[in-house]
Amino acid sequence: MQQKGRFFAPEIVLQNVTVGYGDRTVLENITTVLPAGKISVILGGSGCGKSTLLRNILGLVSLKSGTIRLGDVDLYGMTDQEAMAMRRRLGVLFQDGALLGSMPLGQNVAMPLREHTALDEGMIEEVVRMKLKLVGLEPFVHYFPRQLSGGMRKRAGLARAMALDPAILLCDEPTSGLDPITSADLDQLILELKATFPMTIVVVTHDLDSLFTIADFVVVLDKGKMLFQGSLEALKINTDPFIVRFLGRMPTRESRVIAGGAGVGGRASLASPPETTLT
Amino acid sequence: MREVLGVFLDVVNGLVHCLWLSVTRKYHSKPYQRERTWDHLSWVGADSLPIVSIISGCTGIILALQAAMQLEKVGALSYVANLVGFSIVTELGPLLTALILAGRAGAAFTAEIATMKISEEVDALSVMGIDPIRFLVWPKFAAMLVMTPLLTLWADFVGIMAGGIFSATALGLSGKVYFEQTATFLQVSDVMSGLVKSAAFGMAITLISCTQGLLAREGAADVGRRTTMAVVQSIFVMILLDLFFTALNYILR
């Protein structure tokens, strides 16, 4: 099934996706196409539903209505076994890496290989070293996750996500909790991965530096609704008050002035995005 | 309640699926999974031996003392063997072993899975295409299913031996008489009923502990809460199962 259509870095199509728990609606009527082979950034404040959207793309949260397609494959129209098989083609970097604490780094990266391939141990070791080298952690192959820093754990999570050369790479807030330099390094790593491997990459974040460094396509969410979808350039000139406030990092009182049409008061120019720490 | 039932049924369904695949040999487990099962077998079984031995040994002596206090009055001291043997084999061996495992293994299972759930490790397994039930719960279930009856058998042996040695040394009862009395009085069906009971206890502890672990949502406090609930519920269900099996045994005797 994965061979059908273009599952080689496929586009991700969300149609009228609504998600909720009980009476509470977390995401409402989201319709967008995350382009194939590009980096799409899902942007929004804390609790806006962006992580839920990511979990939808992973098939971990059931939909109230709507469909999600990865290439030609309907994610929510398949059996559990098909879904399990499908997930082999997805690589995921969770917020804190989500490495198994009981295993050293090498074993963590080897897990998907041991589970889904018939490679012998020697070959698995070779691939693990290669993947860890990709993220600059080759010397730490025998370290346990608790012995690593936050940034290293995230990079290790990325190595594990890349273990099976995924068609889609999903990253949940990769730079949260990291210092600016480590964040910039991680952004750079994501860009390098995009340049090296044919993948559709989806990054959920509220980090503006990351946004301006890596995004090809942007989706902005607020309170479960989609406010914007399009290119970074289109985002910069968007006049939605929430987006203006979000990108300008303005305090609430001033943003009300902006929303009222004053457009002054020291807000950062939207034409010139905040400088990234990446040099 | 619906969520609890949903997760519980998921666990049962996943385990039945694993059992079916294992029995029909449709699934050949990978070496690293077999290694996990061996680790659990060793941790649940071998590592529990000292505490099980101490507790069942002490219980054997306590029973011998209690029995001696009553039976001495009627000059029937040799019946100490009957009382110790029967109580240990049919009731206290399985129950105490399961209580130790609920506190030792069950609590650890819950804490481990709950922590993994909170740190998204369980989700990570799912998205890697690794069934969390097969990876996390199945080795625990298999280990408990095998080790609870074996540990119970060991507890029975240690309890009876301790009771015998104590009776011989402190109560003045001949060791030969004690063990002859035990051998003639105890029946294989008594031992078997205890072992069936202990297998049921082992399964109940694993199901409850793993379900509680998978129900954890957020925060360290939830790990503690789930662990407490797992131990309390395990003990409660064990007593209910004990009542059921003892009543069944009484009816079928």
Overview of the molecule:
The complex is a heterodimer of chains A (279) and B (253). In chain A, 35% of the residues lie in helices and 22% in strands. With 279 residues, chain A is of the alpha/beta class. Chain A has a six-stranded mixed sheet, with helices on both faces. Chain A has a four-stranded antiparallel sheet with strand order 2-1-4-5, with helices on one face. In chain A, helix 3 crosses helix 4 (121-134), helix 3 runs parallel beside helix 5 (150-161) and helix 6 packs parallel to helix 7. The longest helix of chain A has 17 residues, at 180-196. Chain A is globular. Chain A starts with 11 loop residues before the first strand and ends in a 20-residue tail after the last helix. Chain B has one domain (2-248). Helix content of chain B is 86%, strand content 0%. In chain B, helix 4 (80-118) packs parallel to helix 8 (188-215), helix 4 (80-118) runs antiparallel to helix 9 (220-252) and helix 6 (132-171) crosses helix 7 (175-185). Chains A and B meet through helix 2 and helix 3 of A and helix 5 of B.
